[in-house]
Amino acid sequence: MIVIGLILVPIFLICLYISLKFIWGAEGKTERGKQIINVSYVSSAPIFPIGWLLIESYHTYINTLTFDTYRDSIWVLILLTFIVQGLVIFILKNRQ
């Protein structure tokens, strides 16, 4: 899990910077910017609940997860949610 964290955390920080800079910047205040933000929310919002459902299903029906594994899995879901949001904003912002 440490290797996954070492890979995902830098990508998460970059994508978080992209998201916050766009959302709080002047570009995010325009009509096109608001559409990009909405698409990024729609794309990233289902990741956490669907992932949580899969983790809970695995825990209930296949194999019991330890608390550490469960906690790490939730952190990975949070990181993936923000990574997808940042990537969607980056891709749509640069598409013209």
UniProtKB/TrEMBL annotation:
State the organism named in the record: Saliterribacillus persicus
Q: Which UniProt keywords apply?
A: Membrane, Transmembrane, Transmembrane helix
**Name the record gives this protein:** Uncharacterized protein
Membrane-spanning regions, if any?
6-24, 36-54, 74-92
